[in-house]
């Protein structure tokens, strides 16, 4: 819990959980204020749950939710009234604490000087300097607005895509002024969560402080983006301040939609319901696997697109391998319920996977989509497609591993940069936005029809970096992305089917097939997944070491220049 004492009677904090309320009480908090609307992220506790915890501890609770970037005078007045009514210390929280700190500063502005407010907030890590004009205006001193800070490149998202792109940009031009907008304090190696759920990795191995992975020389803006103003080349932050850019990189990730399955959120982490798609739950998968001696274990896969299309069945194979080694495979009935019509989207790898489906005696259910979970009753409901019709089927379970439906983030769905669904709409080769020539996208949130994997990002980041450098110089974009993606399918502990492919499902191995034939399970591929890939992630991608990832460059000819759409040249941006 990250409590920051801005004033003796006011503390701010990033998102808290119900169990944190007792910790806050122990430290002396006397009231709690929530400044975050429900539903901003998939791992966000409900306001009602935190209110109940506060009331159980005898603390007054106020909900004054403020949308990122939209702090109005009514919000400030409501916050000021709450501070006047409540006995301090008051603990206020939002996603990062910056909205709460901003509200405090604006509420105190009529009585405190701007210097005092900025010093108090800045002393605990909240930089409210861009608010100075508004703070001073509240005292009647000035009415001018501060100009937006401007950078060569602004990157929205501090995940694998954002960090790798920043490193690749600085490799090409160390003088670039780059800012990364990212509210999280931790960075996660998400490909490792499957191995956590399989009892191979410790969860702590997959997390590092964000400060450790930020490239040297990059400005970390520790808040969230709230909106965009492309007509001004600006990003609007959640406290209402703005960042200007010459080039914008969008790597927002995607949204894990736990609420799309009725009853799922209420039972996650209990009643035998788990998911390797959540950092906190992957150890529960291994706990359930070890504890299950008989009964039914169901593993689900939602409609595409999803992060790493092989991850849902990886969880199943690792659990099934454990039950096989323990002599329980005949007592555990395993089902794989896939909303799609095939086991895996690249046909070359299906024969090897089907051998393991038969080995583990898995009932393979295609066109079966999870729609509801009753945790206490341990029952899952599936919509089963039969031709053009669907019918509902209830299935009891003893263990249920859920892969949630996935969609674009709310930020991108509401932005001018998303396609009809909300994916960042990019040219599939250059990764430049199809309408805004100074905007690029990569990672899980972009519209390119590649597999959404860390391996894809490793190839995409150098392409984006190369093309941004060219665009800033007014040159033609020459770097192209071929759709490369990789999915190391862990079919048993110690063996992997290493799927590597390009756009269209064309098989494209990185290593000679005599060394690793990805169409067959391999021990060497397992060593690559377990030992090499985590090291490559932290020390290769994030350090701009582009081993086997150097971008393909088109020849510098007029013909190559003309082959790209108009906006690809970087010479124009549609409005």
TrEMBL record:
<dbReference type="GO" id="GO:0071949">
    <property type="term" value="F:FAD binding"/>
</dbReference>
<dbReference type="GO" id="GO:0048038">
    <property type="term" value="F:quinone binding"/>
</dbReference>
<dbReference type="InterPro" id="IPR036188">
    <property type="entry name" value="FAD/NAD-bd_sf"/>
</dbReference>
<keyword id="KW-0560">Oxidoreductase</keyword>
<keyword id="KW-0809">Transit peptide</keyword>
<dbReference type="GO" id="GO:0016787">
    <property type="term" value="F:hydrolase activity"/>
</dbReference>
<dbReference type="GO" id="GO:0070224">
    <property type="term" value="F:sulfide:quinone oxidoreductase activity"/>
</dbReference>
<keyword id="KW-0274">FAD</keyword>
<dbReference type="InterPro" id="IPR015904">
    <property type="entry name" value="Sulphide_quinone_reductase"/>
</dbReference>
<dbReference type="Pfam" id="PF07992">
    <property type="entry name" value="Pyr_redox_2"/>
</dbReference>
<dbReference type="GO" id="GO:0070221">
    <property type="term" value="P:sulfide oxidation, using sulfide:quinone oxidoreductase"/>
</dbReference>
<keyword id="KW-0285">Flavoprotein</keyword>
<dbReference type="InterPro" id="IPR029021">
    <property type="entry name" value="Prot-tyrosine_phosphatase-like"/>
</dbReference>
<protein>
    <submittedName>
        <fullName>Sulfide:quinone oxidoreductase</fullName>
    </submittedName>
</protein>
<dbReference type="InterPro" id="IPR005939">
    <property type="entry name" value="BLH_phosphatase-like"/>
</dbReference>
<keyword id="KW-0874">Quinone</keyword>
<dbReference type="Pfam" id="PF04273">
    <property type="entry name" value="BLH_phosphatase"/>
</dbReference>
<dbReference type="InterPro" id="IPR023753">
    <property type="entry name" value="FAD/NAD-binding_dom"/>
</dbReference>
<feature type="domain" description="FAD/NAD(P)-binding">
    <location>
        <begin position="151"/>
        <end position="255"/>
    </location>
</feature>
<feature type="domain" description="Beta-lactamase hydrolase-like protein phosphatase-like">
    <location>
        <begin position="2"/>
        <end position="109"/>
    </location>
</feature>
